[in-house]
């Protein structure tokens, strides 16, 4: 009589129960699948918790816009204050260097890198606040630096003209004399001397009131040009009036 056949236990590998052993293998020998699903779920929940609420998002956006706008205005302020600016001008005291017309407004480029007289020389056109209670921004040419002697020679105006006024105030009080520019000051004059209110009226101008240097005329285009250079002082000679500058 043959011996009885013994079936192997389902807990062991056998060809008769491949599905059972495969399930057992994946369940007990591959727990990382469960851990991966758990980690993915945790990260999804964390991402949801970190997202700003609907009430907080508009406030955050408004803050960012305000911050960007403040930075933009600060940058513009720094450029206009310390670098330069392009702006309008009027008056006839600097004709023909700076044109004048009732049909259009000339525009000039001013460098604020030359504030307080930094790197200013004879022949430069500068902007400044005119002395006096009714201070206004004006631009004139430097014809005398500290220590220079300036000969102001002018034929002046007739008595009928002395009571009139132009765009810049009273007519210049004409004097024929030699003046030494004091230290820390400059002597300023308009290129159109007959129609200029300049140092002949209010005297030498302190360097610390100079606001900038006019480097170019940018409008109108047919009069656009760069200013400065050794030949610039020649523009002051207008109608026989020539400030003579010697050291």
From TrEMBL:
EC number(s) from the headed UniProt entry: 3.4.21.-
Q: Which GO terms describe its molecular function?
A: serine-type endopeptidase activity
Q: Tell me which GO cellular component terms the UniProt record holds.
A: mitochondrial inner membrane peptidase complex
Q: Looking at its record, which EC class is this enzyme?
A: hydrolase
Q: Which residues form a coiled coil?
A: none
Location of the protein in the cell = Mitochondrion inner membrane
Record GO biological process: protein processing involved in protein targeting to mitochondrion; signal peptide processing
Q: Which domain of life is it from?
A: Eukaryota
Domain Peptidase S26: residue ranges: 67-219
Q: Which residues form the active site?
A: 93, 140
Which controlled-vocabulary keywords does the entry list?
A: Hydrolase, Membrane, Mitochondrion, Mitochondrion inner membrane, Protease
Report the sequence similarity comment from the record: Belongs to the peptidase S26 family. IMP1 subfamily.
Task: Return the protein name.
Answer: Mitochondrial inner membrane protease subunit
């Amino acid at each position: 009589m043959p011996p009885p056949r013994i079936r192997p236990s389902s807990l062991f590998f056998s060809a008769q129960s491949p599905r059972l052993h495969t399930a057992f293998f994946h369940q007990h020998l591959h727990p990382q699948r469960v851990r991966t699903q758990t980690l993915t779920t945790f990260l999804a929940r964390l991402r949801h918790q970190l997202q700003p609420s609907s009430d907080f998002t508009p406030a955050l956006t408004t803050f960012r816009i305000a911050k960007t706008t403040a930075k933009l205005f600060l940058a513009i302020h720094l450029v206009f204050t310390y670098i330069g600016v392009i702006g309008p001008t009027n008056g006839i005291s600097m004709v023909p260097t700076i044109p004048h017309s009732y049909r259009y407004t000339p525009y000039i480029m001013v460098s604020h890198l030359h504030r307080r007289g930094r790197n200013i020389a004879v022949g430069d056109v500068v902007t400044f606040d005119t002395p006096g209670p009714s201070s206004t921004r004006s631009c004139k040419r430097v014809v005398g630096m500290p220590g220079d002697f300036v000969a102001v020679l002018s034929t002046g105006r007739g008595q009928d003209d002395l009571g009139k006024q132009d765009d810049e105030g009273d007519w210049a009080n004409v004097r024929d004399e030699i003046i030494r520019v004091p230290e820390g000051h400059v002597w300023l004059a308009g290129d159109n001397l007959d129609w200029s209110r300049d140092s002949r009226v209010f005297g030498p101008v302190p360097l610390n009131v100079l606001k900038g240097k006019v480097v170019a005329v940018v409008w109108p285009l047919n009069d656009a040009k760069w200013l400065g250079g050794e030949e610039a002082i020649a523009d002051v000679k207008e109608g026989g009036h020539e400030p003579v500058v010697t050291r």
